[in-house]
Amino acid sequence: MIKPRTPPGVLELLPREQVAFQRMLDTIRSTFEAWGFLPVETPVFELSEVLLTKTGGETERQVYFVQSTGALEKAAQGDDAGLPEMALRFDLTVPLARYVAEHEHQLAFPFRRYQMQRVYRGERAQRGRFREFYQCDIDVIGKDTLSPRFEAEVPAVINAVFERLGIGEFTIQLNHRKLLRGFFAGQGIDGDAQALVLREIDKLDKRGEAAVRDTLVGEGFGLAPEVADRLLAFSRIRSTGHLDALDRLDALGPGTELFEEGRRELRALLGQLHALGVPESRYAINLSIARGLDYYTGMVYETTLDAHPEIGSICSGGRYDDLASHYTRSRLPGVGISIGLTRLFWQLREAGLVEAASSPVDVLVALFDEHSLHASLELSRALRAAGLNVETQLEPRKLGRQFQYADRAGIRHVVVRGGDELERGVATVKDLRSGEQFEVALDDLADALLARRDAGAAR
Amino acid sequence: MIKPRTPPGVLELLPREQVAFQRMLDTIRSTFEAWGFLPVETPVFELSEVLLTKTGGETERQVYFVQSTGALEKAAQGDDAGLPEMALRFDLTVPLARYVAEHEHQLAFPFRRYQMQRVYRGERAQRGRFREFYQCDIDVIGKDTLSPRFEAEVPAVINAVFERLGIGEFTIQLNHRKLLRGFFAGQGIDGDAQALVLREIDKLDKRGEAAVRDTLVGEGFGLAPEVADRLLAFSRIRSTGHLDALDRLDALGPGTELFEEGRRELRALLGQLHALGVPESRYAINLSIARGLDYYTGMVYETTLDAHPEIGSICSGGRYDDLASHYTRSRLPGVGISIGLTRLFWQLREAGLVEAASSPVDVLVALFDEHSLHASLELSRALRAAGLNVETQLEPRKLGRQFQYADRAGIRHVVVRGGDELERGVATVKDLRSGEQFEVALDDLADALLARRDAGAAR
């Protein structure tokens, strides 16, 4: 006997939790489609040679390799030549780059794609760390050029997604890489030094301002104290609204050309967010956001739940200048975001913010007695034809146990039809949520159940 | 520069093919839910120890193993002890068995689950053979017992799925393991010999009747010629309808107790299929169906497209007596089927029966000129709020090129609003499918587009 268990680091859900998860996936998908994004799915594995062109040290160490039994045997005999042929994707960005480069001539640009699949990372086993998790990504990829206007559309999509998910108020934190780099250059910090300083500043929340300042003016960096102070003052700028954001930016005074360009783009972006009807309470400039330093070149985004800052960013991304330089000579600038849905779902569940959903099954058609089996099947058929999700009780059991089963399975309505109900052309409905029980004419049954279902869903 | 390409043996789709594929997945899912099945997803990998309890030789040789970088390095240093820790699932049945055994006490039985995920097999690279493919499974699992009535529900679900998929007429081939075993026993063939003889009979289509008969009466089997003839006559029984099926079965005369039991169950099943409204043209008894000999114990199913027999079975399964004997002492009988959707989609595409779907994007809101950007964004917002999927043209381009883009991307409607249209409160709609172009009052625009979309979808 083998103990049935999953590998560590995965989130496997019970059916009604899976229903809740699936509803989140559906909401995200329909929102992405409402904004004109097209679905893409890629294989779970890529050729190692293709997957590992771009990775640095840490990611490469987290890659899972895939080997057929044959390859494994060869390796065991020492016939091995380097890496296994294939590896599991560790994000959806590298597969996107490969996809766009491979199918470049069959795609219409700007190419707007969404992708919602699982990715794999050999994380250390730890509570809340997942080795398999869903990412839900959108990206817009241009050919040669891509207007900064697409960078304004992205926060509007983020807003729509989390509004529809209904998991509480949230704030989209915005920063602009050009502002950041422009400001740093204005302080005499250029090139590689920018990345190093930014990495320090990114530790503000963890280490505190005094410790970060000490590091910046210390031997390694050797910044003048007044420069360190200006950097810290800059990264403290966090607006809480639309006009406020622009005021604070304007108050920084004129800067380098790059800084001015960033400010112009950000100003245009805020205007577009307004035209798109994104409430001002939902976004804020936060000049301390410093993610993907080597990769992003324009807007960067992080999203936090107002009531749960401890969860960290639930949706992040930004603008990049060249998606697929390893695979094609075409220049493919883009902008995109990623929602780590498995981690988000897990954290919402931990915080008591999601629970097992009601069953997708609307009705259990009970089995009154052995003689009414065919009547039950015909009734089930009619209810399904009307658009209801129906389970039919097939095994003879006491009615009480049938109600018990429906209750346990999260099915709200039980319909019973037998005895004289068959002759009278009626059925009895029991609503397990409210406890009500009533008789309905057979002809009205489907409509009555549909109305109750839809009223229940609206609540 | 690395050549962007997928590993061999995967089916990667262009976005509009992916839309068509996604619609098939959605149809299957909603049908499964209409019949009261609940969603389950399991991790792509299982512990090797858990996954490989049940497999025989061939499947085990097709398994893909998964190793982290660390484990790979250890193995290279000879610190290896046996199989890698994890392997990719090769079907959805073993993960189901593990899932039900693991979560047994949290599930309501009979447990009805559907699962639609990809599975992995190291098939030899060959056209139409996939190493990664979707399976769409349903199973009903009982605790201790499961009524044969569930075996009648399954063909009704198969019927509903393929009716809704609309890929042409189909026939569900039915056989009953008890009929088969009972008949064989009546001919003096028992135990292991049944499996061996059945395996021969399963080759009828490939080898022809004469060759199979030769083998059966030859040295290996040594059956009497008249027994071989009776077996072949039995396996030739293929009904084309409801009453016909029963007549032919009755004409076989009385048999062993097991045979009679199978006949009783089959008779009851045909009555239930009738009550469930499954058209008689959609199913047929076919006593040559012999799949999963060691596994199935009651009804077995195969489904073929009437116009494309060459595709083979597109949906198969059956009744089994114990799902998870490797993982639990509980007896878990069940019945289930599997649709190999990737292979089916590929074959339908090869046969010209599916094509790239129209875009899920209903409308492209064109950009008339630079001054109308915010008007475009506001219009897009209003159309989205009405339930339309909208892409907004953000980059300035000639209108002709915007139409060209929409056409290429499969977007049916383009809405233009600029110049005096802004003042007059109207917009111009161009339908790229019909070529029509007309003006609509802004207040009526969303309704007009929704009506055209829904009329288009109904066609």
Description:
The structure is a homodimer of 459-residue chains. The first copy, chain A, is of the alpha+beta class and 459 residues long. Chain A folds into three domains: 288 residues, BirA Bifunctional Protein, domain 2, CATH 3.30.930.10; 44 residues, no CATH class; 96 residues, Anticodon-binding domain (Rossmann fold, 3-Layer(aba) Sandwich). In chain A, 42% of the residues lie in helices and 19% in strands. Chain A contains 18 helices and 16 strands. Chain A has an eight-stranded mixed β-sheet. In chain A, helix 15 links the parallel strand 12 and strand 13. In chain A, helix 1 runs antiparallel to helix 6, helix 6 packs across helix 13 and helix 10 packs antiparallel against helix 11. Chain A is elongated, with a radius of gyration of 28 Å. The model of chain A has no long low-confidence stretch (mean pLDDT 91). Chains A and B meet through helix 1, strand 1, strand 2, strand 3 and helix 4 of A and helix 1, strand 1, strand 2, strand 3 and helix 4 of B. Strand 3 of chain A pairs antiparallel with strand 3 of chain B.
**Most extensive chain contact?**
A-B, 106 and 106 residues
Helix content of chain A: 40-55%
Sequence of strands across the biggest β-sheet of chain A? 1-5-6-11-10-9-7-8
Low-confidence stretches of chain A at least 5 residues in length (pLDDT < 50)?
A: none
Major pleated sheet of chain A: 8 strands, mixed
Instruction: Give me the oligomer status.
Output: homodimer
- Mind telling me the CATH superfamily name of the largest domain in chain A? Bira Bifunctional Protein, Domain 2
Structural class of chain A, please?
alpha+beta
Radius of gyration of chain A: 28 Å
Our count of helices of chain A gives 18
The CATH architecture of the largest domain in chain A is 2-Layer Sandwich
Give the strand content of chain A: 15-25%
Distance between the termini of chain A: 47 Å
For the residues shown, what is the average pLDDT of chain A? 91
| Shape annotation of chain A | elongated
Which CATH class of the largest domain in chain A is shown?
Alpha Beta
CATH topology of the largest domain in chain A: BirA Bifunctional Protein, domain 2
Count of DSSP strands of chain A: 16
Question: What count of structural domains of chain A?
Answer: 3
